[in-house]
Amino acid sequence: MPVRRSGPTAEQSSPDALLIRRTMAEIAPIADEVTSYFYALLFVRHPELREMFPAAMDVQRERLLKSLLKVAEHVDDTAVLTDYLRNLGLGHRKYGTRAEHYPALGECLLGALSAYAAAVWTPETEAAWVRAYTKISQAMIDAAAMDELRAPAWWHAEVVSHELRTSDVAVLTVRPDQPYPFLAGQYTSMETPWWPRVWRHYSFASAPRSDGLLTFHVKAVPAGWVSNALVHRARPGDVVRLGAPVGSMTIDHTTDSGLLCLGGGTGIAPIKALVEDVVEHGVRRPVEVFYGARTDHDLYAIDTLLGLRQTHPWLAVRTVTDQQTPLRFPDAVREYGPWNGYDAYLSGPPGMIRSGVGVLRDVGLPSSRIRHDSVEELLTAGS
């Protein structure tokens, strides 16, 4: 897996950044072995930490690798790295991670890297990683400490309704045990009682409500432990745990720019929340929603969107399915527009987001006006 670079060029990169990227390039072909060895080392040397992790470690290993790649990619880009590490630090609160755990994690990480990147591992490389890890861990510790002053590590939430919309899509509404502040367009992590310590990401499917209830759209995916439990097993009265809200796919209400919204599958959930957010703010601004699915039957939220359209003439809703058009979604967006003066919001499978961003750039929308969920998080969301 190649390490992509952004920010400073290779000529501008610091010596530490070059050494870190060289390490990542060395282990890339055997990355899964490296992360497996890291966790084996951690649990042998520090067995008391094993209970913090799920029984099955495949997703956890994948997330560690993605974190390392992210750090290597942006090691010289302070602004990007600071924001990423802040969210990472906040997210680790729900696992019970404390400041005293970080030295053990760092010790085992360096042990795994030095074992598998021996061909390029030198005292200078080790020193570079020590400096980088010290900076990384301190940023996460500081973010968690600040967040602890204003919010719990997690919320308990009772399922109050469970509606099966299709054979594999359910709409769940939950009541948190204490106020849960979030913004339309954000998402959270959820743990079920059936799979302890296994967290998956789900977007909020409604704007903040006066009654404090939260709604999620969940699609059961093959071999998806959490999603199948939520769709086929969860019932009113069950209690789940929620992490802190994250994500920046939110509306800038200081402008009156139009909104171009592309939602694929259950990715329509945050799009619906964004539309409701516009309604709540009472500002008339054009909102164009493209709702993509395989078949008409899979457009499970269409009645809700059409109901909003009937009462709000500034809202347009277009459906795109494989049955309706030979165009691939979101290529159908090219048929409409122009989109000058619009902010774009995309939510759905990672492939849809990547192709959608490409289409929007092709039609002249600058990257600064394109917002979407973290593709890295989506790769393990909903499973």
Automatic annotation (TrEMBL):
Residues 152-252 form the FAD-binding FR-type domain. PROSITE patterns: FAD_FR (PS51384), GLOBIN (PS01033). The keyword Iron-sulfur applies. Gene3D superfamilies: Globins (1.10.490.10), Nucleotide-binding domain of ferredoxin-NADP reductase (FNR) module (3.40.50.80), Translation factors (2.40.30.10). Coiled coil: none annotated. In the C-terminal section; belongs to the flavoprotein pyridine nucleotide cytochrome reductase family. This is nitric oxide dioxygenase. It comes from Streptomyces monashensis.
